[in-house]
Amino acid sequence: MRVFAILIFGGAFGLAACGSPVAGNVSGDLAIGMSVSTLSNPYFVQFRDGAEAAAQRSGVTLTVTDAHNDSVRQAGQIRNFTKQRVKAIILNPVDSDAVAPAVKAAGQAGIPVIAADRSVNGYETAQTVTSDNVAGGKLGAQVLAKQLSGKGNVVVLRGTAGTSASRDRDRGFTDGIAAYPKIKVIARHPADFNRAKGQDVMTNLIQRHPDITGVFASNDEMALGAIQALGNRAGRQVKVVGFDGTPDGIKAVRAGTMAATVAQQPRLIGSRAVNDAIKVARGQVIAKSVAVPIKLAIKDNAHEFWTF
């Protein structure tokens, strides 16, 4: 019988190391640690749920910690997993650069690390499993350009600085929008993948650039914040494209306030990371890079996506 439990770890990081382990069968158990950048984002809740479901199916123990978007806290979580001698670590980085020393230490201790949704810079992990964020950014540019009939003034809301996801989505969007010379990118501003910050940033951008006709946000949370700032202009005078395909994002697409969202499959990313962590912990060979397919959600097909 497999059970769910909650562990509270003490020590220097206190609540930083709170975990929700999925305990498997007593015999033959294998322990995996997973550090998630933030569980305040619905996207990463789905990522965690997919990972926990895979761990439960496989009968392994998965301990999940929330870094609360703090790279120092996350490095401490990785060091704690290393000291505990888990068999593998799954990491969704807060900062792709800052986490490298802790990942290197885990690797030197013989613990394989899988990077999920975002890559690690400066140290080679056992695997990186992500969506193709560059292709997703380009797809976002194409659908926004179509919504704008190939002309207009666009602003870009970037994610957290230092994350590969933000960098790659921005690069893909830049490459894609370059094919439309009548569309001008008049501002780029970080909003840290956060809805409240997205609203604040968008409010300021509207004041400085009242002629905005389009918004590309590197995740749905920022897009939803932008929609709140735009009010009844969203979906009418201003077209908004998000990224992730979260339940709230899909609802906004169905409502018409968001033109589209580049939908990832966070549950699949989480489950694939766990399944391959089990394999590599048991000495099996796994792919160095895994690209999980993305899909475009627009009003015509939004009913095909989950909205719970």
From TrEMBL:
Keywords (A to Z) from UniProt: Signal
Keyword Signal attributed: yes
Cellular localization per UniProt: Cell envelope
Residue stretches making up the Periplasmic binding protein domain: 32-284
Domain of life: Bacteria
Gene Ontology cellular component annotations, sorted alphabetically: cell envelope
GO MF: carbohydrate binding
Pfam families: Peripla_BP_4
InterPro entries in the record: Peripla_BP_I (IPR028082), SBP_2_dom (IPR025997)
Family of this protein: Belongs to the bacterial solute-binding protein 2 family.
PANTHER family (UniProt xref): D-ALLOSE-BINDING PERIPLASMIC PROTEIN-RELATED
Protein name (database record): Monosaccharide ABC transporter substrate-binding protein (CUT2 family)
Source organism of the structure: Nonomuraea polychroma
